[in-house]
Each structure stands twice: as structure tokens, then as C-alpha cells.
Amino acid sequence: MASALRAFIVSASVGLAACGAWAGGPEDSLTEALRARDPVIRQLIDDNPGIEEGWQEPFWREALLDAPRLPGSPWRIHDLARPQPPRVAPAACPRPRGLRLAASDWTGENLALWSQAGGELVPSGHTANRIATRESFGDVELSLEFRMPDPPVGVFQQRGNSGIFFQQRYEVQILDSYRNPTYPDGQMGALYGQVPPRANASRPPGEWQCLAIRYRAARFAGDGTLIAAPRASVILNGITLQDDEAFLGPTAFAAIGPWRAHPERLPIVLQDHGDAGGRIRFRNIRVRELAAR
Ligand code: MG
Fold first, then answer.
1. What pTM was estimated for this model as a whole?
2. From the CA of 188, how far away is ligand 1's center (Å)?
């Protein structure tokens, strides 16, 4: 269960910070190390005062300086030198399709701590309180609306962070990416830690936004061999952020998890990242199973 649990908390910054507060001086601060590493990162830091508040926990040092390279890519996982996705004006939301999930369609040890008033679903603000659909899904379309806290609270990965874990382990990232730069593979619509979105089509905090994902499930042979990597297309506010992109493995933090065989049909998990200061709101969550191949 340890690896499964890790998959759930991978983009949660709390929970990994067990090694105490980092007490380095200015000469060896992570911010200075990042500024020295690459002119693009230096510019990002200079253009975004306060961004360093996002990497104060000790585990960020390794994640932002020493994460492995992505396979077949010049970039590291969580690479801040990678170009920020271009901003694109949001367009019209497509008409939502599929079966609307009611509160009773979700389960979780601490589901009761999520607010479910007025047809909205609001995370509890505690990292461990992820929830999952009662039903299991393989190939599926999921659509929902979400609204980021206004005014925004926190920066970097601590602003409106949530995410949808398909098959319980492959995360499409949800984040307030409106004027909130972070590593591109952790922005709104990223296949977290693996594939950055092609664009930033985020609306400002306080406005409802629409997200639609078409997901094709990971498949394994009877001997545990991977037959098909999971793939996702992601459309935010009418703009394509991912076009049938493949996951490279299970979602992890500063790593890519190893493939491990699992059932094709599994619950969809909604992340509670623990950003208690400002909570994202969800509504109109719909699922539509895709026909078998
Ligand atoms: Mg997340």
C-alpha cells in the first residue's frame, strides 16, 4: 500500500516534509541555487516576487535541483527552466455530457469532511482526505466545473491544488495557474510531473472554469506486462491542453513510478491537496464510459 499511498499524495507538498525545517543561509539557499542554475529560472524568480514561498519545505531542494531527467527529454522532472506554457484566451465551454455524479456516488474515509452544500463539492483541506468514485472505470470521459478561491491563497503548488487520479494512480493536475507560475509539468492540465500542458487557458480566481478529459486506461497482460500506457486528452475552457498524450508511468513526486500491473477498471480519485487556506470548489462532475476497444 505504501506506493499506492505515495501516488495519492505525490503532488501534496505536506506529508513529505518530515525532515525538519531547512536552515540554510542565503549563500546556500535553494532560491539562490535556482537563480544560479539557469537564466530562465533567474528571470522567473525576478519576475514573480514571493514565488520562493512555494519551495520552503526541505524536500523541494532535491525535487527542484536533482530530480531525474524525463526519458527522451532534455528536461528534468519539475524543471523550472522549461518554457512556461503560452497563455491562450479561454473559449466557450463544450456542452457537458455524461452521467452527473451525485454526492452519494463518492466514497472515502473522510468524505463527510468535504462540503457538499448546494451541489458543490469542496475538499476538506486535509491531505489525506482524498475521495473516490464508488464505481470503477476504464476508458472514460470526465467533465467538471471548478472555481478557484478568490482572492487566491498561497503560491506555486499550494494554490488551488487538486487533481484527478484515473485508475487511482495517473494524475491530471488541477491548479490555479492564473498568474501563478510553477514548474510546467505541475501546472493546470499537466500529466503531473510528466507532460506539461500545451497552453495556459486558466480563468481568473472566482470564475467557474470547465475541464473535460478523455482518458484511455492502462492495460496489462496476464503476466503483468504493460500492453498500453494510459493516455489523456485535456480540454480546459475550450482550449486543448493535452492531445492524446501518454503517461510515462504512475504519478509520483520528483520521480516517475514504475509500471505495476493493476485492474483495468478502478475508481477515479479526487485529490484533497490540503490547501486549507483557500479551497477549490467543484460542481457538475460527469462521467461517460467510452465503448470498449
Ligand atoms: Mg494535484
1. 0.90
2. 9
